[in-house]
Amino acid sequence: MRKYFYFLLTLLVFAFHSVVSQPAGLQFGSHESLIDQRTGLKLMDGKKLNVNEELELTVDVFFNRSPKHYFGYILRIIDDSHRNIDIVYNYKSNRFNDFSIIYDHQLTPIKFNYKNRRNALNKKWRKLKFKLDVKNNEISLSLDDRTYSYKVENGIPPMKGLKFYFGANNNPYFKAHDVPPMTLKNLQITSDNTGYTWPLDEKEGEVAHCKDNPEYNGKVMHPIWVKQTHSKWDASFNETIQSGLYCFLENGSGMYFVKDKNLYRHDFQTSETKKVGPFAIDLKSDVRNRLVKNGNKLLVYNLKKDFVYSYDIKSQKFEKFSADYPISQTATHHAQWFDKNNKSIMIFGGYGNHEFNSHFTKYDIEKNNYTDINVTGDKITPRYYTGVGYGKKGHVYLFGGYGSVSGQQIINPENFYDLYEFNENTSTLKKVFTWDTPSDSFVSARSVVVDTTDNQLYALTFDNHKFKNEITLRNYDLASGEMKIFPVAIPFNFSDLKTVVDLTFDTQYQKLYAILIEKVGVESQIKVFSLNLMGGFYIPELPKETAEIVAVEDEPASWNLVLFMATFSLLMVGVVIWRKSRKTIEDKTEESSQTTTVIEKTESASSDVLATKEEPKPKSEPVVETVTIEEPVKVQPPKVKKSTINFFGGFRIFDSTGKDISNEFTPLIKQLFILITISQYINGRGVSADKMIKLFWYDMPLSKARNNRGVNLTKLRRLCKTIGEVKFLKDADFWKLEIGEEVNIPFFELKELLVKPQSRETLLKILEILDTGKLLLGTDYEWMEEMKAEIVNHLIETLYGYLTSSEVKLSNQEKLKISDTILQYDHIHEEATLIKCQLLSSQGMHSVAKDIFNKFKDEYESIYDEKFDMHYNEFLREMGNTY
């Protein structure tokens, strides 16, 4: 009974997953788009939302890669009084965190990075959750299993008339077009126990439909709907090329091609085509012509000929070498790839004169010759039309083909549906999979795309037995062997000696590009089609009228829904039976002291092809993995007293009731107050009356200047009375502050801490103050520069003293914190950068350390206009093993 229950539960989960995992989401046009073409989503435009107690917003986010930068607003929440809450994204910034929250125009302590920044953009959906708790005066932000909270000391009043802006917006007070590269789906907002949902599963249009009430539909600017971009191949390029010569760029973002005896470079994303230079080579269009990129050189070869051309892209000059391929009669549609480590063109298989071959050969660029490779391991049958894909370093996959066991075309030729792994380092061949022969025969394009992270393989296939043909995309799971077919195909006319099909993957923009070359007369026509894979590979559900070229698995969603409902019904029956027999089972359970875990393996229902994996691993005992979920991280800033003068993180003044009165300081009074406070910090006496006049009223007659000074000081006195025990005293000719015990002024507290003897307790207090923000952030006056520099220099000297101290024992994390604080004030502080790099390197984070050094080096050279005279390794050795 229990096995039956587990089986139904497993089937139910599978069926449910098949139903819900349909393509959905709104992709945001980011910095790669023109500034007025970026995507924005606006909610609650006509129907404004009020929050009296609690607001909760959750959304699934897929953070995309960007060839430019990542900064932008994930979300801006604005109320009727122009209070704002911003969730800001700034991945890969050297100065700011990946995520941060701004509340009421101020940066909050909620700021954090990805848990694993190196693999942050690892092609997965993340759950982002924002919560505003008005009753408890708390803001929190969660990303996956981590939660950061901030308690607003002076309270959060109810928010009225909320509007929600994701990405770009044209609000006149909060207009923004900095859009992070992201895709959103499953958006939910709950306000005071009333919830609204926007699935963001549209396929077209500028409306984001609210599931609960159409009156709450959202408006979208320049939408990019995932359903639309994942549902069809887009024709993106069509050109006549010479000799059939083309090759892809290494990251799949574009290609080189030859036309009219010139070399061109085409960018897939921007659709720009640029002329590189003359390419005066006279070759007839031939499917055996190949163009291969090797660093700054392009190699041209044809295995039927006895030559290889080398073209230098920079100098635009050719060299011609003689090289004789030993089995040139069986070279048509051979498999080819470039071995970077050994600087060789690798060749497998081919066809000609009614024969197939299974030879592995390499062309050594330095020696300029072809040699056979002695391959060990599994045997592969002679064939052509084999797809090649790069796996992990030094590993290449060979997929399918058409040939015969004997190599003779007249003796039982057949299509092969298998996968081999070739190790370039050991020349070993291993058979990985064999799939059963399907009803529709096919061969592969020249290239396949292998994703070793997710164990996926993408292959463009076509039937080599038909003239009226179509190119079909197939997705293989290399763990289970399951195969899925993309239901939209590309029609073309197939001819064995006139047609080339190829595939590449743009790793930056997550797009597949299908290449079709058809020989027409003496020239060839190249067509490029793109398919978006941002957020994953989906099988779209197509309307019947568009299904003229559809694979066997037509209408998968309908079948999945039937499967789900049937399984659910069976499960309910099973539960009833199980409950009736529960008492009997419980009685028998006492007799057994051993609990057995039963793991049922169910056959996948989504594939019409079964796979046999070679060399299965030995069975092992079931392992139950324990997952540790982190407790929410409570971000607690230093407790703010009601009467507070805070210069860290900006200019923030709170009165005796805890109200923020910062905005009541006019620009001039604010400068007066800062001048008096900073002067007192430096010299202990304050500022002279004459200096005030020279700075602020230098263009007035002396009598008028003194009058203005008196009026403004009177205004300042009134404001200071509201803060609490804050008085202005005139000692001789100097004005200074007298601060009561109830008034909190971290700036003066810092001064006392900096002159205390070194201790770990003192250091932690210093860091606690500095952690609230940079000194007078966003407040810059010309008269203040020299005074501020004096304070900052003393601060850096003190922190550096702790960093190099042998008296105070600090953890690596504390040393990193000190280094980061120093670098916040001095971006090119050599010693702090060095120590940070050494610490990170010692923890195995070599690439992160090198990135920090490179950013330091770039900024150094930008500021001083001269090169930094050390390389990374020299820099690390500079201070030896000091730490």
UniProtKB/TrEMBL annotation:
Keywords: Signal
SUPFAM superfamilies according to UniProt: Galactose oxidase, central domain
GO molecular function: DNA binding
Region (Disordered): 589-624
Bias kind Basic and acidic residues: ranges: 611-622
A Pfam family of this chain: Kelch_KLHDC2_KLHL20_DRC7
Gene Ontology terms describing biological process: regulation of DNA-templated transcription
Signal peptide: 1-23
Start-end of Polar residues biased regions: 592-609
Key word rRNA-binding present: no
Name of the protein this chain belongs to: Kelch motif-containing protein
Species the sequence originates in: Flammeovirga agarivorans
